[in-house]
Structures are given as structure tokens and as C-alpha cells.
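Form 7-S
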Amino acid sequence: MEALIDRLQRKLAEAFAQGWARAEGLDALLDPDTAADPASGALSGGIAFRVTDRAGLWHVVHHARMENIADPVALDDWLAGGLSIFLMKHPTWPR
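Output:
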């Protein structure tokens, strides 16, 4: 079974490998404290969703935190929610 941290990293790589993400200068960084609990495997931490402006500077436009996500479906739902909010904020992204 795939570890939740590996699943999260794979899903992020898949999402941001799409043409829309490369063309727009978008990415997502895991917070340094993102990790699985050694006993339960539950994942806690966060993701900063970023965009570049015309000068090439990165700006965080959405930050999502998670606490004790213990199964793949819940992780996928959490990530989908974060990506949705990130994309919904498109009109306010730095230019």
C-alpha cells in the first residue's frame, strides 16, 4: 500500500505536470512539518499554493493545513479542496 506522503507527492506532481500549471507558473510546496505519524501513518502538515508574477517572483495565494488524515480518500478530498480554492482565486493572483 502506498504511504500517504508518497501519494500526496505523486498527486501534486501529476496535477502540476498538466499544461495549464506549467504555462501559468504555478506550483505547490509541502510545509516542512508535513509528515506521517510513525504509529498510525496519519498525515499532518500543509501545502502552500504559489504563482509567479510578471517579474518572476513567487507569491503564496492559498495555504491549506491538514491534521491527522488517515486514509487515501480523505487525502484526495483534502487535496481537491485545496486545489479548487487555489484555482478559484485566479482573478486575484498577482500579475
